[in-house]
């Protein structure tokens, strides 16, 4: 561990419990619900009904130059991978392979979230947050495991990211990226 409690190259990735403790140590109010493992937004929705927050979907993408992008957006946002790169200052993007996801963020598919940046030791991942998330009073993400969901205030999310030295790119991932029916 480093002096600020983050994993270094010789320590394993933080666990969900360690992440929740880190949020508490930062003085951030977090509400966590536990549920069976979920792999999709649709599977999670029945459990999220008891947690008052803007729920999210999160994608780890890789571009042609091997830059990693973590995209967080409201669950109802449809992300068009063809037009997204122009909005985030990249070229063609595709989904990162699960091995890269685990090696970089210490999570498996279905558990990706901005909280996982706590495990990004090499600072390889650029975070893109949909502007709608930053306008919400509370946002919810998986805390490094798809068996729980944790809500924090938007200010709490900013404080957490600041503690990691992460400056998110805030982008309106709305009409220009929503696939329209023809």
Quick gist of this model?
This protein has 182 residues and is an alpha/beta fold. The protein has helices at residues 16-25, 41-48, 84-88, 98-105, 131-135, 154-164, and strands spanning 30-34, 54-63, 68-74, 93-95, 125-130, 138-141, 148-153, 169-171. The protein has one domain: Alpha-Beta Complex (YbaK protein), CATH 3.90.960.
Coarse morphology: globular
Question: Which structural category fits the helices and strands?
Answer: alpha/beta
- What is the assigned CATH homologous superfamily? YbaK/aminoacyl-tRNA synthetase-associated domain
* Uncertain segments: 1-10, 175-182
What is the CATH architecture term? Answer: Alpha-Beta Complex
CATH T-level topology: YbaK protein
Protein name: Prolyl-tRNA synthetase associated domain-containing protein
Domain YbaK/aminoacyl-tRNA synthetase-associated: 35-159
InterPro entries: ProX/PRXD1 (IPR040285), YbaK/aa-tRNA-synt-asso_dom_sf (IPR036754), YbaK/aa-tRNA-synth-assoc-dom (IPR007214)
Organism: Azospirillum griseum
Describe what you observe in this structure.
- Belongs to the PRORSD1 family.
- InterPro entries: ProX/PRXD1, YbaK/aa-tRNA-synt-asso_dom_sf, YbaK/aa-tRNA-synth-assoc-dom.
- It comes from Azospirillum griseum.
- GO terms for molecular function: aminoacyl-tRNA deacylase activity; aminoacyl-tRNA ligase activity.
- The protein has 182 residues and is of the alpha/beta class.
- 26% of the residues lie in helices and 24% in strands.
- The chain contains six helices and eight strands.
- Strands 1, 2, 3, 4, 5, 6, 7 and 8 form an eight-stranded mixed sheet that branches.
- A hairpin with a 6-residue loop joins β6 and β7.
- The chain is globular, with a radius of gyration of 16 Å.
- The N terminus and C terminus are likely disordered.
């Amino acid at each position: 561990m480093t002096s600020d409690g983050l994993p270094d190259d010789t320590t394993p990735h933080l666990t969900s419990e360690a992440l929740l403790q880190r949020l508490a140590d930062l003085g951030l109010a977090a509400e966590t619900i536990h549920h069976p493992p979920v792999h999709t937004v649709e599977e999670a929705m029945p459990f999220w009904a008891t947690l008052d927050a803007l729920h999210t979907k999160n994608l780890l993408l890789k571009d042609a130059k091997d830059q990693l992008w973590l995209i967080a957006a409201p669950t109802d946002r449809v992300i068009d991978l063809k037009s997204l790169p122009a909005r985030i200052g990249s070229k063609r993007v595709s989904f990162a392979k699960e091995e890269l996801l685990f090696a970089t963020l210490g999570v498996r598919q279905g558990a990706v979230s901005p909280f996982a940046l706590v495990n990004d030791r090499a600072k390889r991942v650029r975070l893109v947050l949909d502007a709608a998330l930053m306008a919400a009073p509370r946002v919810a993400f998986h805390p490094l495991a798809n068996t729980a969901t944790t809500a924090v205030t938007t200010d709490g999310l900013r404080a957490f990211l600041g503690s990691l030295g992460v400056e998110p790119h805030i982008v309106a991932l709305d009409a220009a990226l929503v696939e329209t029916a023809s």
